[in-house]
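EI: anyone free to look at a 162-residue chain?
SC: sure, send it
EI:
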Amino acid sequence: QVLNEEGKPSRSAASMGVYRTIKQHTPIVMYEYADTRSGKIPQEFLEGFQGHLISDAYDGYNKVFGVIRCLCNVHALRKFKEAYKLLANTKARKQSDEAKAILQYDEIFHLNHRIEERAKEKYSDFEKRMAYITKRRKDEIKPKFDQFLSWLEEIEPKIAGR
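SC: here you go
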């Protein structure tokens, strides 16, 4: 439930869609309240949109046609943090795959932040700044992320049943 709505039980489904541009001089953020969690909501809102759609793993976004679906790494990191909290607070917890995944995500996120900060310092022109960020991400982050994904695929059979 998005809000404590009068006359609606706390178990009722509602949603707040947040849509944000990323490749704009001034990002645009739009909110859309719906009294349902149906996939028709983003499908109708994003009708005609083409490009990358970054979202959580909610299946309703699969109804949006003409997009390249990208899952959000912040949401994935949250799942590792939730799993980490469930582990017994022992020495083994600090050596767990969950802890290792959190550390790798932190490294990638910090590197991305440094790249963005460097870009702001170097370029006032938006297009040049975005070109710099894109190149640095490809050269510096993508190899680390590819290695991280390979490691996740390697450990997936071990942690899938947890």
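EI: The beta strands are 15-20, 29-34, 51-55, 67-71.
SC: 👍
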